[in-house]
TrEMBL record:
Protein name: UDENN domain-containing protein
Annotated GO MF terms: guanyl-nucleotide exchange factor activity
SMART domains linked: dDENN, DENN, GRAM, uDENN
Domain UDENN: residue ranges: 13-424
Length: 1054
């Protein structure tokens, strides 16, 4: 790591000549064949691509009836390790041989009518496309002159020119011309010449390029279309260059051959280019299509590309407008202002790239503050704390940034640039210079354009050559046409090229003094909060600390007074993290971890509030109270938490002096450093010191430190297995009884034995796969599903952390035993939790009756009146305190339904809530589902009580009243059903009206007058009459219709 980079790289790796295979034409196939390659054997550092014949002629190997002009384009080849090689291809056509002429019946007597393609390819790791175009032209001219100049040119390119970043230019002779070339000063910065400028001219608008940028940042597929091979290659290369400092990690094929067109349906992201001749076969693709010939970008309806958040979108757009349209700002001036001359294409190219480079630097300000170290040795491993970055930069609600941080593009960036001691480049310097105050604020036009010009000058200096590449004498098309129409290109002398290469390798040094040395990456400015925000956070943390002190000191009345303010503060990330830190701090002495029921209730209430509780659950231990939160099913949460804890342990390992406190989560800097990532010395500082001094450390010391790091990762993995078992196995007796605990224990023992006996390995593995559920497990089996979920997560996390495979298998083998032991403990916990004394409940209040007529029919049942959506609150300071939910009793009288109780809010518990509804006005009563009853309507009800509520109902009346209530656990289900049945029978009564409330005073007179009715009339109620009319309306109308009157007789006229 500490060694400087001084190895030189060949300018050209291979020179290959490929031509049409005439031997395959009679078999009906048109393919290319490598006829010559130099050198004959692969180099030790890079091998020849096996599919060069296909990518050098993307349009296919086909004969032509006419002479075609010489064409040049550059394709990009990527090997299995991700290393890229540029294939610069010169396509020529020459007359066919006699075998093909005999096959063709249309041949005339005057001369050959068919021409076959031949391609001369230069393979290099440097993107000097203009230089290689000139070299290929010189080689082609030498082949036409039938001399040995071509052999000498090829041997010079392959063995005499070696380039080193940062070193002066290297001069060499190519035929009669003398050329010079210099490697880029920084190998990580792309060399673009004027390709980005031409690319933006093809796209036409700033909107198109920003749409394309967002699509690449979020891992969408990009497909280029054009009728030009060079335009496809240059556009794809320009787009990849605009992504600097990111290197595109997915499939990248600037010119896709027609034979591989089915690869466009790949499910993985890619950047590919195809010719317009195959556009018909490229329909119905879920990819962003860029038509370079017309400058259009087509986004299919199935794709939704997120936009760049403000103010970054406006800043990038303004920067591009200043570069592309400098006269736009003064277009409306009455007095015309002179504009400076338009810069050259190369300078314009660097200014455009400077706009995008500054955009990425602004976007990633402070990213190095969120890096965490997992391993320092064998090999170093750095991870990114995504949640900390989103919270500190306030990007949590931005879909583009969240998708970008999850993309492979950003993960590759962290793996390459995460190390704090490495070779730095322009991006590292730019990020370190940007201050946090400039992020998110508008800057002056002069300041912005000056910054862009300064960055563009550094980009231009990186790739500037002493002499331009385009010095080849102009060659007319007529010269090539005349030469090719009658003769074929000769073959090169293999022996002469090989001997020349060997001779020049002996006389040419291929290594020079090192120039680029690794150094400590300059730390980015820490993302600090505003002064007002810091003050507000400090006050919240003080209130939270006071509340927890009151709870642990058993001053519950003081704790309840500030409980509402503490619950509101739990919306802040700082408060949630500080809450965990304070809980850790209050575990000393250890006897404070055992709480009384009242203390326990308040602590669990804060835990659920911090986790944004979705459903409720409470039992003896704290982890069983928060099991039903969705966060425990989020694998990204477990992975981020695991890496954060490992980072803390690795930092403590390499600290010069151990901290006084054993608490791994200090609270002193929580206001400005929520995740404790910027403690001095930081983890990145310690890693940088270790990497810088690695060359001076003995091998046995390195092995010792690597073993200590490995033990930390292994110990944390075992600890997290226990945590995941606690959170994944619910305290549900009905589910626990279905788990085969003995089978889990046997599996754990079997996994332990198979590490000692090789003969039992295969059998144990096959049985374990089936029994553990990896193959045919029942999804309803709690034990197997838990083991499978934890095993997969542990295997992925530990593999990323660099644990060896035997250790990972050992951890996964112990998981069934952990689950079985925990289930045994939970059964005992469930039994003991039922013996807990019930919580104190308020006394039930009796309603005031309308004497002497109103009387209670049923009631006195404890219920909770839930919120119905209306604003029923009072103001307590600046925080509204709701009267609902309220705890009390529900009563049914012969006149109304009455609820009377007290609010659950401790600040309003002295008030009385009365809600009533007349029985005869009720229009509908229905039960409420579990999903509705477990929603936000339960907020404010004690957690232990809310978990036991049952039989929730909703009653509506014709007077626009609504009442929602749920019965307490002390009310049996039979009592709740009986109450609702009594209400229904009273509302739709089939008895005499003197039993109702309105006739209570005259009940004696009505009963003596009307007497008792033993039979029920057919239409005893309006409801039954309505049903009868709906069944047979015509029959009922005829029954009640009056007979028609007879008409008077008409007198006769005599």
């Amino acid at each position: 790591m500490s060694e400087c980079e001084g190895t030189s790289t060949r300018l050209v790796d291979y020179v290959v000549i490929i031509e049409f295979d005439e031997t395959q034409i009679r078999h009906g196939s048109s393919v290319g064949n490598i006829v010559q390659r130099f050198p004959k054997y692969d180099w030790s550092d890079i091998s020849l691509s096996p599919s060069l014949e296909v990518f050098s002629q993307p349009q296919g190997w086909a004969l032509s009836a006419e002479m075609r002009p010489v064409c040049f384009f550059a394709n990009t080849l990527t090997d299995i390790m991700g290393a890229r090689q540029y294939a610069c291809c010169l396509q020529v056509y020459e007359p066919c041989g006699d075998d093909i002429e005999e096959v063709d019946d249309t041949r005339s007597d005057e001369g050959p009518s068919l021409f076959k393609p031949k391609v001369i390819v230069i393979l290099s790791r440097f993107p000097f496309f203009d230089l290689f175009r000139n070299c290929l032209n010189q080689i082609l001219l030498a082949l036409l002159e039938a001399e040995d100049k071509a052999e000498l040119m090829i041997s010079t390119l392959l063995s005499q020119v070696y380039l080193t970043p940062g070193m002066p230019a290297v001069s060499f002779c190519l035929g009669s011309d003398r050329l010079s070339v210099r490697a880029p000063k920084s190998p990580t910065i792309p060399v673009t010449s004027d390709k980005v400028t031409l690319f933006l001219q093809q796209l036409g608008t700033i909107h198109n390029i920003l749409t394309l940028l967002c699509a690449v940042m979020t891992d969408y597929k990009i497909l280029f279309r054009s009728s030009s091979l060079s335009l496809l290659a240059d556009s794809c290369y320009a787009l990849r260059s605009l992504l600097y400092p990111f290197d595109y990690p997915h499939t990248y094929v600037p010119v896709l051959p027609e034979l591989l067109i089915e690869y466009l349906e790949s499910p993985t992201p890619y950047i590919m280019g195809v010719l317009n001749t195959v556009r018909i076969r490229c329909t119905d693709l879920d990819a962003v299509v860029v038509d370079l010939d017309v400058g259009a970008v087509y986004v299919p309806p199935s794709i939704t590309i997120p936009v760049i958040p403000q103010p970054f979108h406006q800043q990038l757009t303004s920067s591009l407008q200043m570069v592309l349209y400098p006269g736009l700002a003064t277009a409306d001036f009455a007095w015309k202002v002179g504009q400076p001359p338009f810069p050259a294409c190369e300078v314009q190219d660097k200014r455009i790239r400077a706009c995008f480079l500054r955009f990425f630097a602004d976007l990633l300000v402070g990213y190095r503050c969120c890096l965490e170290v997992i391993r320092v040795y064998t090999p170093p491993l750095i991870v990114f704390h995504k949640s900390a970055f989103l919270g500190l930069r306030q990007f949590s609600s931005c879909p583009l940034i969240r998708a970008f941080l999850d993309s492979l593009l950003f993960q590759s960036f962290i793996s390459e640039r995460g190390l704090p001691f490495r070779i730095c480049d322009l991006f590292d310097e730019l990020v370190a210079q940007i201050s946090e105050q400039s992020n998110g604020q508008s800057t002056l036009r002069t300041t912005s354009i000056e910054n862009i010009i300064e960055i563009a000058e550094k980009l231009l200096e990186n790739e500037r050559q002493e002499t331009p590449f385009s010095i080849t004498p102009f060659v007319t098309r007529q010269r090539f046409t005349i030469s090719f129409s009658s003769t074929k290109l000769r073959l090169l002398n293999n022996d002469l090229v090989s001997q020349s290469i060997k001779h020049k390798l002996k006389t040419t040094p291929n290594s020079v003094a090192p120039v680029l040395c690794p150094r400590r990456v300059q730390a980015t400015p820490w993302i600090t909060a505003k002064e007002e925000r810091m003050g507000a956070v400090s006050r919240r943390l003080q209130v939270l600390s006071s509340c927890l002190h009151h709870i642990f000191d058993f001053k519950l009345s003081d704790a309840r007074k500030i409980m509402c303010a503490v619950e509101l503060s739990m919306r802040s990330v700082n408060a949630r993290v500080a809450f965990c830190q304070l809980l850790w701090k209050n575990l000393v002495p250890i006897n404070r971890a055992t709480l009384f029921p009242q203390q326990f209730e308040l602590i669990v209430r804060l835990m659920n509030c911090a986790l944004n509780r979705l459903t409720a659950g409470v039992h003896q231990f704290a982890y069983t109270c928060i099991q039903e939160h969705a966060v425990w099913d989020n694998q990204q949460f477990w992975e981020a938490a695991f890496f954060h804890d490992v980072h803390r342990q690795i930092r403590r390992l390499y600290l010069p002096a151990r901290e006084e406190s054993d608490c791994p989560f200090p609270l002193k800097e929580n206001v400005t450093d929520t995740w404790n990532l910027m403690e001095k010395p930081s983890g990145m500082d310690l890693v940088s010191d270790q990497l810088a001094s690695m060359s001076n450390v003995r091998d046995d010391e390195i092995e010792k430190r690597a073993a200590e790091e490995n033990s930390i990762v292994y110990g944390q993995a075992k600890h997290y297995i226990n945590l995941m078992v606690y959170m994944r196995v619910p305290l549900d007796l009905s589910k626990l009884r279905r788990v085969n605990v003995r089978e889990l224990e046997k599996r754990s023992d079997r996994n332990g034995r198979k590490r000692d006996f090789d003969e039992e390995t295969e059998l144990s593995m096959s049985e374990s796969e089936v029994e553990s559920g990896f193959v045919e497990a029942d999804s309803t089996d709690l034990g197997n599903s838990t083991v499978r979920w934890i095993s997969r997560l542990i295997d992925r996390i530990c593999s990323s952390a660099g644990l060896e495979q035997p250790q990972i298998e050992s951890l996964c083998g112990e998981i069934p035993g952990f689950v079985a032991l925990h289930i045994d403990n939970l059964e005992q916990v469930y039994t003991e939790s039922k013996r807990l004394s019930p919580l104190h409940k308020p006394k039930l209040l009796q309603p005031a009756l309308l004497l002497p007529s109103e009387r209670i029919v049923a009631g006195g049942l404890r219920v909770f009146l839930l919120a119905d959506g209306r604003v029923t609150s009072t103001t307590c300071g600046e925080t509204p305190q709701s009267l609902l939910p309220a705890e009390g009793a529900i009563f049914l009288t012969n006149y109304r339904v009455v609820f009377k109780g007290q609010p659950c809010d401790l600040f309003l518990c002295e008030q009385v809530v009365v809600r009533s509804m007349t029985v005869m006005s009720i229009t509908k009563e229905k039960p409420i589902g579990d999903a509705s009853s477990q929603s936000s309507q339960l907020e404010g009800i004690p957690v232990r009580v809310a978990h036991q509520l049952h039989d929730a109902f909703q009653i509506r009346s014709s007077g626009f009243q609504l009442m929602k209530f749920a019965f307490d656990e002390e009310v049996p289900n039979e009592k709740a059903e009986e109450f609702m049945e009594t209400l229904s029978s009273l509302r739709w009564a089939s008895v005499l009206p003197h039993t109702l409330f309105a006739y209570s005073a005259a009940s004696s007179i009505l009963s003596s007058t009307l007497g008792s009715i033993t039979s029920k009339h057919k239409y005893g109620t309006m409801k039954e009459l309505k049903k009868a009319l709906m069944r047979n309306p015509l029959k009922e109308r005829k029954r009640f219709r009056a007979p028609p009157k007879a008409l008077p007789p008409i007198p006769k006229k005599w």
